[in-house]
Amino acid sequence: MLRRLYDWTMGLAAHRHATAWIAVIAFLESSVFPIPPDILLIPMVLAAPTRAFRLVAIVTAASVLGGIAGYAIGIFLFETIGRAILDFYGYFDKFAKFQDWYTEWGGWIVFAGGFSPIPYKVITIASGTVQLDFWTFTIVSIISRGARFLLVAALLWKFGAPIRAFIERWLGPLTLLFVVLLVAGFVVLKYVI
Rounded to two decimals, what is the model's pTM? Predict the structure, then answer.
């Protein structure tokens, strides 16, 4: 089943509307959606390495715009939407502690959330809720999200064929590792922060 899903994703990556889909996924992931755009970025870069850096620009822009939407949810819709999102992911109880950290480390928290497996949507909503300086939030988001997607695309672009063969050979364990890292990001937010 995993092999069929991989083949389907590789086919989707080459589809004429794939760029629009990855932009939508990147936008939604930054504010409400749990699945990161890397799941589509990786096969898209593998399928068309010459478009790698164009894809990075598109994914970064869409992700930052989605982050701004998350920021707006935090400022204007926290009680109606933001709280429900944090409750859904189980982070509301830790949110008060997180708010205190923003006072001192706001920009660094946005950078860590934008670059790491920590769920970025929680960072975007929290940034709006504590009213972190909008320009600091936006600039740091561009840098961290851009760096994350650029790192992934650059490695795939540079080592495309061997990386693709490696991924295809070790698809099961790599998928498990990806899921573990994704879950670890959620766990860090829930129990450590």
Answer: 0.76
